[in-house]
Structure formats: structure tokens, C-alpha cells
Amino acid sequence: MANRGPSYGLSREVQEKIDQKYNPDLEQRLVDWIIAQCGGNLEKPQPGKQNFQTWLMDGTVSGGLQVRKQFLHDATHLCADSFFLCQILCRLINSLYPRGKEPIKKIAETQMAFKQMEKISQFLQAAEAYGVTTTDIFQTVDLWEGKDMAAVQRTLMALGSLAVTKEDGQYRGDRDWFHRKAQGYRREFTEEQLRQGQSLIGLQMGSNRGASQAGMTGYGMHRQIM
Predict the structure, then answer these.
(1) How far is Cα of residue 188 from the mean position of the Cα atoms in its chain?
(2) CA distance 207 to 201
(3) Which of 15, 34, 110, 206 has its Cβ near the most Cβ atoms within 10 Å?
(4) Mean pLDDT of all residues in the chain?
(5) Region 94-99: what's the mean pLDDT?
(6) Residue limits of the Calponin-homology (CH) domain (predicted)?
């Protein structure tokens, strides 16, 4: 995570408004789903936005481990306990695919900061390819610097909803955690039906039924008023 000083003035007001969008109840639901989906040895973090961010970044935060307070002094080195940083997101997206078809083939283990940010980018690209819309995708800095954890929640919720909706057997966990996405109903028409439709006047354009010129006078003629 980057070393960012406190915000002041307008920047602080903007950040406070962003932070207010964060949902603690949603956090617990997402943690439960990620643990159920990824399996393995993931431990549940302590409640709290900063704990959730740290857990997503390295997946090692537990009840007996305090949140790291030592941040980066530059953008090229990480703390020693961050060796497995950002792997949890890669594991999450890979778990939604059948074995052998995972989108992230190799999850690099490195302490270089730009490589860790690259893992987040790989997750975001894979999530978009899975079907998450661009408007629901968070930016790398939203997680890396903790600038907008509500956006991170939105991306994970959209991913979970897609996983439940697809019904491909890859989703693990309580299906009530996410809403199913509406499915489009595609109708097929024959050429004959399409030709018949071209001769009809749509209701949006009104109707010509009962139209008559009876009682109308020609242009330039006087009109009789009774």
C-alpha cells in the first residue's frame, strides 16, 4: 500500500463523502463469500474498512494480527510480511472458472510494488471479461491506496451476482448473499413476420383508423360558420 499523508480542505471533504458510502454489513457478507469461494487457509479478518483492505491485499489478517501501520517509503519496496500481496483477488476470480480454464495462469510471488499492482489489474481485467460492467469496476488505486473501498465492494458484489446468475456450478456459498441479474429474453422472428411488421403503423405514431376528409374545405375557400 502507498504511503499517503492526511488530506486537508476540499480533498478531505471529498474523501469523507467517499468513505461514507462504505457498507460495514456488506463487508462481512463479502468476507464470508470470499472465504467460501476460495477455500484453503484464508482467515477471517477483524471488522473494519482498513482490515478489509489489508485482508484483500494479502489475505493473512487474522484476529491476532494487527493491521500494518508501516507503509511504503517509496513505490518500489514492500514490507516483509507482504510477500503474498494481492493473491486473494487472483484466487477469487480463478475459482469461478473450471480447472484448467483459469484466466490468471500464473500468480507471481514478488515483493515489487508495480508487480503487486499488476495483480490487481489482472483481476480487474479478468472480472470485466467474466461479465462485470465497466461502470462497476474499481480503479487499482481504490484498493492499493484505499481511496474508495466502497467501489471495491461494488465490484465484488457485481462479481458475486454474476457468479450466482450463471448457474455453471462454480459458485460456492449461500446463494442469498447476492441478487440474481435479470436475464434478457431474446425473441426470433421469421422474414415473413418482419415484412408484415413493416406495413403496420406503430401506436407511438397514432392511428389512421376512421380518418376522413368529409366536411373539409379546399385551400383558399371561405369557411362557413353557423
Answers:
(1) 31
(2) 7
(3) 34
(4) 75
(5) 91
(6) 46-163
